[in-house]
Amino acid sequence: SSLFVYPTKIIIKTCGTTQLLKSIRPLLNYACDLGLILCGCRYTRGSFIFPNSQPYPHTSFREEVMYLEESLPSHLCYRKATVMPSKLSSHSWHVFTASDDEESHSHMPEESYTIEVCMTELDHVLARKFFRRPNDGKSGDSAGKEMTEITGIGEINPNAIICDFAFDPCGYSMNSLDGDRYSTIHVTPEDGFSYASFECVGSIYDHRNNLVEVLKKAALVFRPATMSVSITCAEHEVWTRVAAALEPLGWKCRSCAVDEFPTIGNVIFQTFTTRRK
Amino acid sequence: MAVSGFEGFEKRLELQFSGDDPAGLGLRQLEFESLEKVLHAVQCTVVSAVGNQYFDSYVLSE
After folding, report:
1. Which residues in chain B have Cβ-Cβ distances shorter than 8 Å to A14?
2. Interface pTM (ipTM) of the complex?
C-alpha cells in the first residue's frame, strides 16, 4: 500500500481488507485546519478477488458510493459513479468522482494522465522472486532493495528515487519519485491469487515512446496472464499507445470502455489476456 | 481460484484541495502523528518513507 502527499493533493492506495474510505473524514479535518478546502475526489478500484472478505464500507460498490456521498461536503456537487465493464467478468473498473466544478480539466493539468495497471495470474517463475528466503536476516528495506534489483523493477525508470519494502514471507511494495511524478508497484505473489499493480503519472507531451517503454517494462517484470489498464486523461489519444505497446509482446486487447467524468476528463479501461488464454 | 487468500486488488483514493498557502507546503505540513492517525482509521501503518522537494511518499503495511 502507498500514500503520496503533495501540497494540495493526497493519494492513498491500499490493498487487503483495509478500510480506505474511513480516511476521508480525518483527512478533511486536518486539511481544514491548514486552510485547505476539498475541491475534487476520485475513488477507483478493480473487482476484488475475495469480495466477501471486505469489511464495511467496502462490502459492495453501492455501499462505497453511499459512504462517499455521506463523507464528502455538499459543495462537491458534480458527482458520478460508474462500473466500467469488460469481457472478463473478474475485471471491472469501479470509478467514483466528485468535484466542485463541472468544467473538465480544472483540477488536473490537461496534458497529464494517470495509468493504473492491475495484473493477475503472474508468471510462476517471476512471482517466486517476490518470496523471501526463510530466515534471511534482512530488514524489509534491505530485502526490498534486493527484489527491486533482481526483478528489473529498478530499470523501469532508472532516474527515479526508489523506496522499496519486502514483506515476510512474501510480497513487495515500491514507490518511486522522479521530480514531481510518482510511480508505484505492489505485489502479492502467492499461487492461486497472485496479483501485481503498477501505477504511474505522465504527460502527453513526454517523448512518444515513454509510456510505451514504461508499460512494456512493467508488464515484463510479471508476465501476467490477464491485465487491465485504466487511463485517466483529459483526452483520448493516449490509450491507443497501450495496445501498441502490449500486443507485440503477446497480450491481446479483449475489451475497451470509455467514460467521461466531471473535472478529470476521460477514463479509458482496457483488458488484455495472453493469446494462449 | 483459492477459496480465500490475500486480496491484492487495491482501493485508490485521490483528494484534491485548494487554498491559500504562501509557503506552498500545504498538506506536507501535516505532522507524522496526524498521518498515523489517518492510517489507523484505514488499518495500516507506515513501513518506509522518502520525499523530495515536490512530495512525500510512504510505503504502507498491507
Report:
1. 10-11, 42, 44, 60, 62
2. 0.96
